[in-house]
């Protein structure tokens, strides 16, 4: 399926903006699950593009305001066409971090004995880094049941354990819980950001899921959408991956001036 994605982030400030440095994880790449036919990225200043440690394409820009400037608005615009292939299983390139790297604890997806205890209902403790797909899918369904999807119930700083204990969250939280459980049991797992097309679910246009390593020796992974308890398919567009949300947010930055900031995000996805 070919999808046209349009992602606009609109910033407004109550006072003049003096300085801003922003990094964007908003460029999808062609790979086993998708082919990027066209993609454009726009920002208030010239963008500088590079690859991060996880192989993601990232772009950064710097804004420096002058004394006479009265800049109180900025816009980041991403758009393009992506052909989704629905491939959920794949092997990492040798240039990417070793699967065992994704066992390390991170703030938002830290292993915990309570998460391990819950996970053992569905999958055993890993002895050799090999995971069974049916058990992982059963775990994803268990996580979706334990952490119900509820808008505005958490924030980008909510940890996996906090979401698990509260029993509610959004796709980001469900992915973090799944990742943290897998790490707690010895299965390498990582966080994935992207887009999800569903005509009747516009709130899920900005989406998150996870990769779990099926076989460490061959660097084989599978992408699982915890929110929908399924493998990724042609509705999914992959943007970036990392150890957790903090490693690959859509936009991260710092600023001086500007007073209070308000941000509006608009994402539309349409079949081509």
Low-confidence stretches: none
Helix/strand order: EEEEEEEHHEHEHEEEEEEE
The tally of strands reads: 16
Q: Write down the Rg.
A: 19 Å
Q: Describe the largest sheet.
A: 6 strands, antiparallel
Structural class assignment: alpha+beta
What share of the residues lie within helices? 10-25%
Instruction: Give the averaged pLDDT, no decimals.
Output: 95
* Total count of helical runs of at least 4 residues: 4
Terminal CA distance: 8 Å
- Overall geometry: globular
Percentage of residues in strands: 35-45%
Helices and strands in order, then pairings?
Blueprint: E1 2-13, E2 17-27, E3 34-42, E4 48-51, E5 57-64, E6 73-84, E7 89-91, H1 113-119, H2 133-146, E8 148-149, H3 160-166, E9 168-169, H4 171-184, E10 189-196, E11 206-215, E12 220-225, E13 230-231, E14 236-242, E15 251-257, E16 261-271
Parallel strand pairs: 8-9
Antiparallel strand pairs: 1-6, 1-16, 2-5, 2-15, 3-6, 4-5, 7-12, 10-11, 10-14, 11-12, 12-13
Describe this structure in words.
With 272 residues, the chain is of the alpha+beta class. The protein has four helices and 16 strands. A hairpin with a 4-residue loop joins strand 12 (220-225) and strand 13. The longest helix is centred in the middle third of the chain and has 14 residues, at 133-146.
